[in-house]
Design a protein that fits this description.
The complex is a heterotrimer of chains A (327), B (238) and C (292).
Chain A lengths: L9 H20 L3 H26 L7 H19 L3 H23 L4 H21 L1 H4 L5 E2 L5 E2 L2 E2 L4 H24 L1 H11 L1 H6 L4 H27 L1 E2 L6 H14 L5 H16 L5 H17 L3 H11 L11
Antiparallel strand pairs in A: 1-4, 2-3
Chain B lengths: L2 E10 L2 E11 L4 E5 L6 H9 L6 E6 L2 E2 L5 H6 L2 E3 L12 H8 L3 H4 L2 H11 L1 H5 L10 H14 L4 E5 L7 H16 L3 E5 L3 H7 L2 E6 L2 E5 L8 H13 L1
Parallel strand pairs in B: 3-8, 3-9, 6-7, 7-8
Antiparallel strand pairs in B: 1-2, 1-4, 4-5, 9-10
Helix pairs in contact in B: 3-7
Chain C lengths: L2 H32 L6 H16 L8 H24 L8 H24 L13 E4 L2 E4 H23 L1 H11 L1 H6 L4 H26 L8 H14 L4 H22 L4 H15 L10
Antiparallel strand pairs in C: 1-2
Helix pairs in contact in C: 1-5, 1-6, 1-8, 1-9, 1-10, 2-3, 2-4, 2-8, 3-8, 5-6, 9-10, 9-11, 10-11
């Protein structure tokens, strides 16, 4: 469980200072544009993985629709910009809102169901979303994706000519998202989620509203995920169905599990590291996804609480975080 | 002593139910376990059967350690436990339930003779052999449960609350059958709430409370029925 | 609706229902005994198709279907056991094992899909048809392969039912499914029943893959759609209930065929998804009232 007083330990403050310093200085160190690109992707994926950790890790709800929240954010903003000429900045907000709406719709049946049914329903939903996107070719570009998505700009300043601008913007969003998630999981609400996960009957008998808390967890986890999806298309300038795909889903899952479920920081750090590893393996083709899958399985074998969980436990010697169902 | 439980502690996860408990059952002996609910009688049987592994202590059967053996290895040695009557295979017929009782290697070859014996003991089961277990009455389920253990060709038979929740008339019927089984000379360890049944069948009794033996009667010792009843109800109310 | 449309809907519904029945009965067996879901079940279908292709096709070992099909089934039986040993067995005693196994089998599915992509390349493959040609039924041409699938599947399922009902091992499998502890007390070696169940379910999935591989192209992701349908089927039929699952498979197959005819290929999944949600909410124990 995550204790409330643990929100800002000296260790955490140090971590934040170091993290922000690295973030600010990194573009000066990284001169290789490809590495900068990988860093940008890594931060985007960190957002998706750490927000997924809210439902998967903290709430212990096996929500496989999360990947669809990302995809829906992506396509909402992409379609608005390409088909309707809406500004990407508004698109990002629209993407976040669309993801929240979809999360609300999915969670209504999902929160009423028990473990395995939630997994089946949300898994089916993600597949359905993919099938629909692929089928509506005239609108979404079908299997080949939606091309010609505009990049971000402020006045005449085109972000795509200055990747560093994307770096700082997406980094700032990651920062905001992580602060938001920390705030959520250390609040009474976050504690009640963990209580429902670990001692459902007891928590319910003490008056914790199960359906409402899980519903909110879905909503909270979808906001930044949808925004990240929108940022993703305005960075890559294309929305392709792979944003809903199995491979990307596996990548996100590996970030949570390797990083450490129910830790937030674990998926954030693992998101960046694993994106780097994954991109370095890109020339290997399908083998990179085989390696990632193996990484998940080996992690579940040997370090079920994830690397962050392991490190945190070793440091504090207190049973604090990362002891969830999958932790 | 065919069965020796020596200072066994066991439980579920972090909850310790049995604390250093020791009991013994001699050859041909009929021993009863009684005591309040939730104090470890069933847990003790589960530990002996290998369903849970003791955290400390040892269990020997016919001179060999069985503490770490799998349930099927223990059953195959002739140490057979009847499942509680409400835990049969609900969507199987009476015959299938009984047949499964003889699943372990040694008993399988003798299943036809065993079946004839069970049907002789419980003629009702012969009539109901095609019926699904979940449609049986409480008494019939207990009969199936005892019958399943007999199908395992036991040299030591452990019965787990064979008269639990039964009306007096059916209880008598089962008590009679259990006495008949006892008369065949098989070694028995019986858990039940019904003291009368235990006193009728068993030579010795253990009173189990808080995961320990808090009283045992010695062999040949006259059992003071009244004393036991008083103690039982006295402590049960505490 | 004309007669030939009706026949076409029925044929495609029954072919799909047959595939779903084979897939879903394996899932249901695993669920019934282990209370776990195998998300890599779809890749077993895919591997079955690839294995049969590799053994039989002239670009592979060129041994023909008569060797290829049995060899693929044997290989997949072993594959099922391996999958159990690597992705399920290590987690079985952990708290929340059912959810951990979802993740490990998903990862396993990703591994196997990409391995197939890497190993067999991007070129689509197709199995030879076991039987070629067509027959006329009510003035409608039906492929013999389709007809074979429709006839063969109930026979396979009947054999499965007989195995479960009449053999000692089948009795043990049902015992584990109905009451884990009592099965242990009866002396059933539960640790050996689990891999057996995975082997049986892998063979059933492989059979579905071999059937599908003769009708459509073999691809690394060919198992995804059937798996998704099989999920819907097991929920529809009641998790763990084999008769419910089999009836459910045909019902879902027919519903899908009708949906494809009425709303088109792309919207048919939406219809199925709505069916899934309705069943989950209105009748969470499934069609035949199995246990949750």
């Amino acid at each position: 469980m995550s204790g409330r007083g643990l929100g800002w330990s000296p260790r955490q403050i140090a971590l934040w200072v170091v993290g922000i310093a690295i973030f600010l200085l990194l573009p000066r160190v990284i001169t290789d544009p490809y590495l900068l690109h990988v860093a940008i992707l890594g931060m985007l994926f960190s957002i998706v993985a750490s927000n997924w950790d809210l439902t998967l890790g903290y709430a212990g709800v096996f929500n496989f629709a999360h990947i669809a929240f990302f995809g829906i954010g992506a396509y909402t903003s992409g379609i608005l910009a390409v088909r309707f000429g809406v500004s990407p900045w508004i698109g990002i907000i629209a993407g976040a809102i669309a993801a929240v709406i979809v999360a609300a719709i999915v969670s209504v049946p999902a929160i009423r169901l028990r473990g395995i049914y939630v997994a089946l329903l949300t898994f089916a939903f993600a597949q359905l979303a993919l099938a629909l996107i692929v089928s509506q070719t005239s609108f979404t570009g079908g299997i080949s994706g939606l091309v010609g998505v505009p990049g971000l700009s402020i006045g005449d300043y085109q972000f795509r000519e200055h990747p560093v601008a994307y770096f700082y913007l997406i980094g700032a969003v990651l920062l905001a998202s992580t602060l938001f998630l920390r705030r959520v999981v250390t609040s009474d609400f976050g504690l009640s989620l963990v209580a429902l996960r670990d001692f459902e009957e007891y928590a319910v008998s003490r008056g914790v509203p199960l359906a409402r808390q899980r519903f909110l967890a879905f909503l909270f986890s979808s906001v930044f995920t949808g925004a990240a999806g929108a940022l993703y298309v305005h960075y890559l300038l294309v929305a392709s169905p792979e944003v809903f795909g199995f491979s990307l889903g596996t990548l996100f899952l590996s970030m949570i599990l390797v990083g450490g479920a129910a830790t937030i920081y674990g998926p954030v750090v693992a998101g960046i590291v694993l994106t780097y590893i994954s991109e370095m393996m890109a020339p290997l083709g399908p083998i990179r996804f085989m390696v990632l899958a193996l990484l998940i399985i080996v992690t579940m074998w040997f370090v079920p609480q994830g690397v962050w969980g392991l490190v945190a436990r070793g440091f504090s010697r207190r049973k604090t975080e990362g002891d969830g169902v999958i932790g | 002593m065919p069965l020796n439980v020596d200072r066994v502690s066991a439980g579920y996860g972090k909850v310790v139910v049995l604390h250093d408990i020791s009991i013994a059952v001699g050859q041909g002996e009929h021993v009863g376990l009684f005591g309040p609910n939730g104090h470890g009688k069933t847990t003790l049987l589960r530990a002996i059967s290998g369903l849970i592994r003791p955290s400390s202590g040892s269990i020997t059967f016919d001179g060999a350690a069985i503490t770490t053996l799998a349930p099927r290895q223990i059953v195959d040695r002739g140490l057979v436990q009847s499942p509680q009557g409400n835990t049969l295979f609900p969507r199987m017929t009476v015959l299938e339930n009984l047949t499964l009782g003889a699943y372990a290697g040694r008993a399988w070859g003798k299943r036809r003779e065993s079946l004839a014996r069970v049907f002789a003991l419980f003629p009702k089961l012969a009539q109901r052999q095609g019926q699904l277990a979940r449609t049986l009455s409480g008494g019939e389920r207990q009969m199936v449960s005892v019958g399943m253990a007999l199908m395992g060709a036991p040299s030591l038979l452990m019965l787990d609350e064979p008269t639990l929740g039964l009306a007096p008339k059916i209880k008598d019927e089962l008590a009679e059958a259990i006495s008949a089984i006892a008369a065949t000379g098989v070694t028995m360890l019986v858990v039940d709430q019904d003291i009368e049944l235990l006193l009728g069948v068993c030579q010795r009794l253990y009173y189990i409370e808080n995961g320990r033996v808090s009283l045992e009667t010695r062999e040949g010792e006259r059992i003071d029925r009244q004393q036991i009843l008083e103690m039982y109800f006295g402590t049960a109310q505490r | 609706m004309s007669v030939d449309t009706l026949v076409a809907i029925l044929v495609s519904g029954f072919v799909a229902g047959s595939l779903y029945a084979l897939m879903a009965s394996g899932l249901s067996l695993v669920w019934g005994t282990l209370r776990m879901f195998n998300f890599a079940h779809g890749t077993l279908l895919m591997l079955g198709a690839y294995a049969a292709w590799y053994f039989s096709d002239s670009k592979g070992l060129d041994l023909g279907l008569s060797v290829g099909i049995p060899a693929a089934l044997i290989l997949l039986a072993l594959g099922g056991i391996l999958l159990y040993a690597l992705l399920v067995r290590p987690f079985i005693a952990r708290p929340g094992a059912d959810l951990v196994v979802i993740i490990t089998t998903l990862a396993g599915a990703s591994f196997l899909q990409n391995a197939a992509q890497e190993g067999f390349g991007p070129r689509y493959k197709q199995l030879d048809r076991v039987v070629k040609g067509q027959v006329e039924v009510l003035n409608t041409a039906i492929g013999l392969q389709e007809l074979l699938i429709i006839i063969l599947t109930p026979i396979v399922l009947l054999l499965l039912a007989l195995f479960l009902k009449r053999t000692k091992l089948g009795l043990a499998i049902r015992a584990v499914e109905q009451n884990h502890d009592s099965a242990l007390l009866a002396g059933v070696n539960v640790g050996r029943i689990y891999p057996l169940i995975f082997a049986v379910s892998a063979v059933l999935a492989a059979l579905a893959g071999i059937m599908l591989g003769g009708l459509f192209f073999i691809t690394p992701v060919m198992g995804s759609d059937p798996l998704l349908r099989a999920f819907i089927v097991v929920v529809f039929g009641g998790l763990g209930s084999l008769p419910g699952t089999i009836v459910g498979a045909y019902v879902i197959g027919i519903i899908e065929a009708i949906a494809v005819f009425v709303v088109g290929l792309y919207w048919a999944p939406v219809v199925l998804f709505i069916v899934l949600i309705l069943v989950m909410i209105l009748r969470p124990t499934g069609l035949m009232g199995g246990k949750v």
